[in-house]
Amino acid sequence: MLFYAALARNSNRIRDAFHSSCLSHSIQCIILLSYSYSNPFIILLSNSHSNANASSFLVDNYGLFDNLQVGNGVLDLACGKGRNGLFLVSHNVPVLFADNNEAHLQSIPPELESAGTRAKKSTCWLIDFEAEVSEGRNPLAGKSFDAVIVFNYLHRPLFPFIREAIRPGGLIIYETFTVDQKRFGRPSNPDFLLGHDELAQAFAGWELIESFEGEASNPERAIARLIARKQAKK
């Protein structure tokens, strides 16, 4: 994230204001002062895993975690390089990063190390969910999570296992492409594209917190989004 502000005579005041802004948003910042007689300026760069790296859908709904008792941690399913899970880690939420790409997972521990004590309960899990399911196994058997987050990934046979693995009162946060994505390009394989209303049906009976299906921008794409809460035990 890149910020520009006039420096001139009030450079200290601007620097302090930007620094406070970074702290209030849990962003580590580097301040570069460049002095030019004709055009002095200040640049602030984030050098941490900032909000800009995570899905805006997750960032915008982070407040849900403030009221979620986190004891079991969050599963970042098919996490890739972990951009969304790392955002949660930066807010002291323990995350299990799960993916079948070992190279991607290897990029995460250095990020966790830089997060210090905030990441002490976060780990990586090399797992091929699709292979496990095809061999008749539930890859989430015996596991319980306070929330599961899934972005840009779909393997339909996992839906019941995800439902089962989320503890009562826990959350599902899911966003991926729909069949209308074919108008915009890849992915175009129907195996990786949700049908209309399919995501909502996969978590039918849960408390619906937010749901969206349609076109999104930056980049243009066709997606479905859902946040739902599993019923708490009575």
TrEMBL record:
<keyword id="KW-0808">Transferase</keyword>
<protein>
    <submittedName>
        <fullName>SAM-dependent methyltransferase</fullName>
    </submittedName>
</protein>
<keyword id="KW-0489">Methyltransferase</keyword>
<dbReference type="GO" id="GO:0032259">
    <property type="term" value="P:methylation"/>
</dbReference>
<dbReference type="GO" id="GO:0008168">
    <property type="term" value="F:methyltransferase activity"/>
</dbReference>
<dbReference type="InterPro" id="IPR029063">
    <property type="entry name" value="SAM-dependent_MTases_sf"/>
</dbReference>
